[in-house]
Amino acid sequence: MSEANIRRLSEQGDSSSQFALGFLYFDGKSIPRDLSQAAYWFKKAAEQGHARAQYNLATCYGTGQGVAKDPSQAFYWYMKAAEQGSYSAQYNVGASYNEGFGVGKDRAKAIWWFRKSAEQGYADAQFNLGQGYYHGDGISVDYVQAVSWWRKAADQGDAGALYHLGFCYLKGHGTAKDEIEAYAHLNLASVHNEKARLTLQVLHDHFSPSVRLRAQQRTRQLRREIDAMIKAKKVR
Q1: Per residue in 154-183, pLDDT tens?
Q2: Same domain, 85 and 191
Q3: pTM score, two decimals?
Q4: Secondary structure (3-state) at 4
């Protein structure tokens, strides 16, 4: 649809077109970038219940793009989108409760919203839910559940989850102790995680050459497994 038609329908009150026009202004590729106009049209659509517009408007308020930064308005619109099932908004509601951004800190509510998002497959939420279970922060300690949620995030390539899984395999927390699995997970995490690199070096020096070879083989296999799961998810 042309920009002229999108604008015409937006002015007639069509929420999908209002969202699209807001995105055009935000993106700035086909028309000059104008963040205030982007926020204006996102708000028009958001007020009609358009979930993606609500999410984008929340982000504008949270970052001060096109509007004055207002954490309470960011939280309000994230909640609106979250209540419609947006997993990214649900995560941001959880993060807002976790950090006290636009709302009072409440770790139990943060965990509740992280779970809603995690159950829809959002890796960041799965990682944070795992953190809650492992540390008993906002929920009872449960290493098995921590490992379960970290594994779901790790299957999407999340470096933090890979590191924590490696640590759990190393210590036998929530899963059987397995130094080969620990090495493989830490090895993959080490690309982006300094703690993983340091732990991996200690483990590497501890292994005999034959065990080190097995661990490196398992690393390559784990990489293939994760890549296959990521590819399968994209196809769906």
Answers
A1: 999 999 999 999 999 999 999 999 999 999
A2: no
A3: 0.92
A4: helix
